[in-house]
Write a structure and sequence with these properties.
Blueprint lengths: L1 H23 L24 H6 L3 H13 L4 H9 L2 H15 L3 H13 L7 H13 L3 H13 L3 H16 L8 H12 L9 H19 L6
Helix pairs in contact: 3-4, 3-5, 4-5, 5-6, 7-8, 7-9, 8-9, 8-10, 9-11, 10-11
Amino acid sequence: MIAIIVIAFLALIGAALTIFLKQRTPSDATGNHVLQPPHFEGLFDRPDAASLIEKPTAGDRKEGLLELARAGNLNALSAAHAIHDARFYADVMAALSEWAFERQQNLTALVSHISKSNELRATRPLAQRMIETCKTAPDRRSTTAMIHIAALADDAETYEQAIETALEVWRSGRLAGLSPEELVELFISQYWVIAPEARRGGAGFALKRRLLGIRRELATAAPVR
């Protein structure tokens, strides 16, 4: 009797399973069961896959920053500095300098942007442009900016050229408002802005000697009126 009950129970389970499978499996027009292919959404099945493929490369990012620099976007310089690639930073500086040299207001904006930063450096071409500007239109502000940018260029010879230019316009009487003491203070304070490695070597030693000579010379000089 127990065997008959067990067999009947198993038959009932088998019939129920058969009905369930028929309901779950779709059929074609002939009544044959059709196997459904596994669900697949394509190459970008994972939500983050497309974003990984589209992520810009380092080269794309650098080219983008160069384009911004050519257009005069000063923020490109800070972004270039954050990459820690000296050669690329120089390239961005060159692109921004080319933009800045187009008109005086652009040059002023670039110099101001660099001067207000505690990290950005200048370049020799930019310092040379500031030296030429100071020669033609010297005043207290332009002279101070010239000396500061020359120091940030990290080149001893360029810095010496900048201080000689300042002395020249001061002696000619075209730099009113700066006393000998103020000139010496400006030259010495900005000397320490130059990178340590640029203050070493022959050019660095010559610059230090020249600063000592200027200090002695201006210690006895009368203010130019």
